[in-house]
Design goal:
Layout (H helix, E strand, L loop, with lengths): L2 E8 L5 E9 L2 E5 L8 H14 L2 E5 L2 H4 L11 H11 L3 E5 L16 H18 L6 E6 L13 H9 L1 H15 L4 E6 L4 H12 L6 E8 L5 H13 L5 E8 L23 H19 L4 E6 L23 H13 L5 E4 L5 E7 L1 E7 L2 E7 L5 E4 L1
Parallel strand pairs: 1-15, 3-4, 3-10, 4-5, 5-6, 6-7, 7-8, 8-9, 9-10
Antiparallel strand pairs: 1-12, 2-11, 2-13, 13-14
Amino acid sequence: MKKHSFELDIRKPGAQVRIRQLRQKCTFGSNIFALGYYQGDQLATYKERLSAAWNAGTLPFYWGRYEPEEGKPDPEGKVAESARWAKENGFTLKGHPLCWHTVCADWLMKYDDDTILGKQLDRIRRDVTLYKGVIDIWDVVNEAVIMPVFNKYDNAVSRIARRFGTVELVLKCFAAAREANPDAKLLINDFDLSDDYARLVRELLDRGCPIDAIGLQTHMHEGYRGTKAVDTYLERFSVFNLPLHFTELTILSGQIAPKVDDLNDLHIDNWPTTPEGEQRQLEEVEEFYTQVTSHPLVESVVWWDMVDGNWLKAPAGLLRTDLSPKPAFNRLVSLITDEWSFKEADFPLSSGKTLHVSASEGLYEAIIDGRSFPFTLKATSPVVIIK
């Protein structure tokens, strides 16, 4: 995220003005699944690391795990407890995912396609309604491009994607989520960042699908893709003029994985982080975050997973298995909380005063004689009038 020069034309009389940053243009976070299974000192350290780095978190709603027995969602209350802690500690939360063919509920398989569809839509309405005001961002449909042709194993969601068509299924899922929470931010999310995904998004938008943001997964177990590839993604999906969320980012600090068709097929038993890998990760993380957050449509970057070994046993974390921070973690904290943040400052003021500030894009406020005047800084609008 770059800083830009802005001119503030203050048209309110007063002795002085205080400029304060309320929110950065981007939210920064990770999945925070480990809130549901760490305990004791390990949980306390994990929470400390989360709070030091992030202002956003993604919580797990994989149907097969969230509702392993029909009619008994979140049976141990772990998701609800995690959501409470994160909300109380200022995190912007997202639920992931509401409809996905993988980690699907096995108990759905006893039903016919029409019943499965009805239960899928009921599930969306139930969970979006239940968490309204706590979780107001949702990955509604995950990996829709491959969903109808997924044949690794039979599952209920691929069945209804084939029966009713991908577009029709996605439209119905988004309609159910919008009905349950009209103010929610609804995402479609995919790892397939090709023209196939772009064509699907175009068709959905042309059909009136209420997509609020486009989710882009960037798991780089097989090696860092570099700025040219990321520029291609940004260009391909910017044509829709919707916010872009990098929803699942992975950059390794150890051995690069061999090429596979499905990341879930990776089976590397001894996969440690290494000093040279951590140095490589540091450089790639800084480059990636700086590149994507400088794009005007990018408003969220989510890391996947915070701790080594928590997903695919990979050295994919910003923290080692003992929760000690890697260099990339420390650098990100420095970028987010220092270099990309605006330090609150007072300026002497008279009527018609013009202030010049260097700041990153985001939401700010000018406090003049105890009154707050919110304003937004955008690189495309370097002059801001406060009146």
